[in-house]
């Protein structure tokens, strides 16, 4: 019918016509593993699951009761996630026009995901072969020699860990995308009835994804640890000690980091190139609203929310938790060995227990957000941020109690009876740090506060003043977070040092483990933080579906409020991720120095930057951050140019688009962004992987000829230090400035300073366009890069010596 109207030229107002949408779907995509599972008889599948869980519990029982506890909590969290999935999917999808739009978004997201992760998997297999080659020709540590673990065994263990980490990280990304492309239309439909119901669906959908991602990270490490424990006969005579076992898990963290980096880069380039192209031509040049169905790039923009903000963020948080758990396990084992603690398993497995409790307390926080009692009635728009904040407060209170219980259970030792209390305080420091980080980022990015309103006011005097104000706001926003991180690290280190744990020489040794516990405290509410993060893109997509399906203005008002809050939650969770990345990188750096000492069989406790080569390594690390950021932003710019040219071409060649007489070619924009983002993600990703390996190897050769045997390891250590420091500052600047620009635009769109279509609004759109690659491409990729540099140097340490 719609096509006939177009051909006859009789198409009137969109509201007067049946709301149809071109079906871009050819065939629903289901990953191979799920197709195989769906093809198995239900009874057979049930028996296989029972056997699988039985094997897991058997291996866990032979390792430690703590492992059994961790696995049990993870499985319970998966059951809760299944309940949430059933609850969300039971909600209605709304009228046919909403369903058609959601189908197109789902098809675009799943198609890109399939292509992107196919490319990533090929690169992961190639890198796995490189790791295997390196480990087959490297030296082993004294601990591995004493345990009878040869080069080949070590090589296969590391490669298997790497591939498992990559697969689990990819699955975490798929879960995030799968949930978001099904929840968005249900939030849109709920917004027709109640703002609170729409909020509840978006939150529970985010919670479903969060519980699976965090649970996957925890159970993956727990099962891998237990498998190695049983297979290698750990703690039996003539075998490996349990305190050395965590070092075998570093490949898992590297695999997770590798996938997360490319997922974040590819997804970030996709989502922001489409967004920039749609805004520049649609809003600025044509003067049409955001997510207007006449914009040829609107579907690509909505697809980008799912592949960039949901799939990539799921892989990102999975990697954050995996890296933090592994580094804390390494430090816990090292400290227990130095202090001659009789049963070190509590210190090693403590991170797994903390994140198991995270699943429990975050579930309570998610369920604390309820819908309105009245059904079928449009409730007044409440403040969604206040509701989410209440849920976060509930989660934090429970996390404090759970953390205290965990420390008393696992960290109590007779030789230092009060040590557990000091470590509990370290965890409290981490929890408070996370809360302060969320508050600081909210202050700088929420339009209820002065910084964003001042930025919006600067838009009234032009595009240039908006850019200047946004850059200055981003630069200023680095101050408070750095002060908070600094106080946290020093305080946690001091509490750990004074915990009463001493080594054989009488020196206190708990400082580094204290910072590890603080990092665990900061991530002890990670599942709820990811819930708030996933809330953002789901709400954004819901608003796009409402706009494209031409729903009443009152419905769009609800989704606009949810979208603005989603921008704030995304910014706050990015700030949270940067803070946790800073603490985790400090731990991984310490683990790297310990590993270098183990391989070189020489003490390696400090790095002297007064040595010229070491100072050069630091400069190279700082340079890496800036060049990586530049290439990531440039990738968005080049891809956005292609989108802009395509959208302009369609408006010129199809003048009937503006009058609803011709349909835009949405598929063309989707294809442009998908192919360009896959092409553009390779260059910055390769830079991140190759740089530390090349620098370490080159300076190793230089050190060989100049009589400095550890020069390569020292230069890489300096590269890590400078890259971490400059990366944290750069990521804070990019994330906060981008979030502030976005919400300054949202503030004007509420009617302030002339509202939509005003000169101030056009200037704010320019600022938002500049900030898009900052906050959703370069910024998020940077904190993944920081941790990946640490994990790759841990895995590749032998080639630096």
Automatic annotation (TrEMBL):
Q: Which EC number(s) does the record attach to this protein? A: 7.1.3.1
Where do the TM regions start and end? 32-60, 66-85, 120-137, 157-181, 201-225, 245-263, 347-371, 391-411, 423-444, 478-496, 508-530, 575-593, 614-637, 685-703, 715-734
Where is it localised?
Endomembrane system
Q: How does it sit in the membrane?
A: Multi-pass membrane protein
Q: What Gene Ontology molecular-function terms does this entry list? A: diphosphate hydrolysis-driven proton transmembrane transporter activity; inorganic diphosphate phosphatase activity
Q: Which GO terms describe its cellular component?
A: endomembrane system; membrane
Q: Transmembrane as a keyword?
A: yes
What are the record keywords, sorted? Ion transport, Magnesium, Membrane, Translocase, Transmembrane, Transmembrane helix, Transport
Q: What is its main location?
A: membrane
| Pfam family name, one | H_PPase
Record bears the keyword Zinc: no
Task: Spell out the PANTHER family in the cross-references.
Answer: K(+)-INSENSITIVE PYROPHOSPHATE-ENERGIZED PROTON PUMP
Recorded protein name is H(+)-exporting diphosphatase
